[in-house]
Design a protein that fits this description.
The protein is mainly α. The protein has seven helices and no strands. The chain is globular.
Length: about 150
């Protein structure tokens, strides 16, 4: 009887915090960043390249670590609130640099390809060098802590 019960129990899947962070930053870039007519040609070209890659790769990358949609939405709102003051381009660059930091930590080639495409967008957005690595790193640290708090309060 015990053996039969054990066979019927679904496996518990625990995802690494870094894997969850990669997917959350993918959601931030995928769902929150937009390019408009006021953006320069370099920004629009880099955004189109990143957008095309996200459109191709995102479904399988999201499937690696399913995240509850309500908690993801709360996290995305918290990202916006945690961004430092600045122009829209500076704020977008900070998000992009934070995502690049998370994605370059990944062992999978698709994450690396996203990071490379995001680097081009980050460079284009941050042409004046105003969105520093420090602000992106601080944002990442804040958002990792925020996710841990959200997970603890499930």
């Amino acid at each position: 009887m015990r053996a039969a019960l054990l066979r019927q129990r679904p496996a518990l899947i625990v995802h690494a915090p870094a894997a969850i962070e990669r997917v959350l930053w993918l959601a931030a870039v995928d769902r929150c960043l937009r390019c408009g007519p006021r953006d320069g040609d370099e920004v629009r070209a880099a955004y189109r390249d990143l957008r095309a890659l996200i459109d191709r790769a995102a479904p399988s990358l999201y499937a690696q670590v399913p995240v509850d949609a309500v908690r993801e939405a709360r996290w995305l709102v918290a990202v916006r609130a945690a961004l430092p003051e600045g122009t829209p381009a500076e704020r977008a660059a900070t998000v992009v640099w934070a995502a690049v930091g998370a994605w370059t930590d990944a062992p999978n080639g698709r994450w690396g390809a996203l990071a490379d495409a995001a680097l081009a967008l980050g460079d284009a957005l941050d042409a004046g060098g105003t969105a520093t690595l420090r602000s992106a790193t601080a944002l990442r640290e804040t958002m990792v802590a925020m996710w841990k708090t959200m997970e603890a309060g499930r």
